[in-house]
Amino acid sequence: MMNRIIIHWFRQDLRLTDNPSLYEAAKLGEVLPLYIFDNVNVDKNSIRGAAQWWLHHQLNSLNDSLDGKLCILEGNALKLIPDLIANTGASGIFWNRCYEPWRISRDKVLKENILPKNIEVKSFNGSLLWEPWEVLKKDGSPYKVFTPFYKRGCLCAAPPRLPISKPKSIKLYEAKDYSRSLSSLSLLTKKQWESNLAKHWNIGESTAQKHLHTFINTELQDYKNNRDFPAVKSTSKLSVHLHWGSISPNMVWYETKKFQNIKNSNLSINKFLSQLAWREFSYSLLYYFPNLPNKNLQTKFNNFPWRKDKNLLKSWQKGKTGYPIIDAGMRELWETGYMHNRVRMISGSFLVKNLLMDWRDGAAWFWDTLVDADLANNSASWQWVAGCGADAAPFFRIFNPTRQSQRFDPNGLYIKKWVPELSKLPTKYLHEPWLAPSDVLLNANVAIGRNYPHPIVDHLVTRKYALDCFKKIKNK
Description:
Radius of gyration: 24 Å
CATH class of the largest domain: Mainly Alpha
Number of strands: 5
CATH superfamily of the largest domain: DNA Cyclobutane Dipyrimidine Photolyase, subunit A, domain 3
Distance between the termini: 66 Å
Shape: globular
Number of domains: 3
Number of helices: 21
Order of helices and strands: EHEHEHEHEHHHHHHHHHHHHHHHHH
Helix content: 40-55%
Mean pLDDT: 95
Structural class: mainly alpha
């Protein structure tokens, strides 16, 4: 048995620990570790920008963990895999499932129509706590509301599987005659931007595990109370590690649950676990509604009069809206590839409900600039904030950016960090600098309209107009 060659096809599971497919492959024989950058079968949601940068370094870290024996290929997986099997004599290929529509279609074709019948093909769950088909309503239909999805679905289903240890030994088969170099994938394209991203992140499996335990030991206890304050170090920032699979949701789930009933932190633990469940909900929506990235789940929004204004969109993208909390968030995003979740909601609401820009314009920008750009999370979150998705925030719920800023960044620490031209303003005026008296602006070296913009729209005026537009489609 040990002379068999089994391909483990790495995808969104770029780790050795708690990797079901890799673990099973290692029990059967030599493992040929494979990564394919499939730029043929992918749809328009191919990775871009910040995500490409992360993937390059994640693959580099994984290759180091595999003693440099990761086989890297680029092109059509439907052609490359049969060729690799024929040339290496591999007798099986294992992988952990992915849930993007294009991957599901490709994998189905590969499994049913391409691979020879004598090749052992197995797929596993290495990315979710519960498979989408394991959490359904009694009538067999998918949930469209989060709370029953989590409480009646997830928590009443079988518990997530326990994490699997790293294989004690992996006999690696090196396909060096077929592998390309990592640099040949040309994932690094914007040196200055990427050098800025590198200042804010450490990448790799061991880093992800350390990050989890640091969060549990230092921030988890106060997570429920502090999670909405962007200036407070209180969120896990594990979304990017979960997306690329440098850590599994099962490990996060069970390591967190170890601390239940300790230090009076149960409320925070339950809140954090529910955030993991939101990720599960997004994946369920994508699985059952594969048009989630590009079509309104609530079809009445197909008639919404979205505005097309490149200048307004650019002002939002560059953090020059004149609303400090939004500008801080958009600049944090550009500098780090990340934005605090509360600020994502505020910025998203502003784009859709104040600028009246199509939510897909916002989703496209986040897709390009987030290191944790995730098709399920990104699409579901934008439809949520726009009011057109499943269990969405009602369209009439329009965040007031000034009030949100005053509530969640009361001392302006987040704003001062990312909008330094306002850092000398008294806190009283920091959230709405256009109201500051001229002498206060002068002393703070702030010139509205020169070194910091006027608000590009009036919140109250645009709020009223947005509600009027919503009433028209609501009554149709």
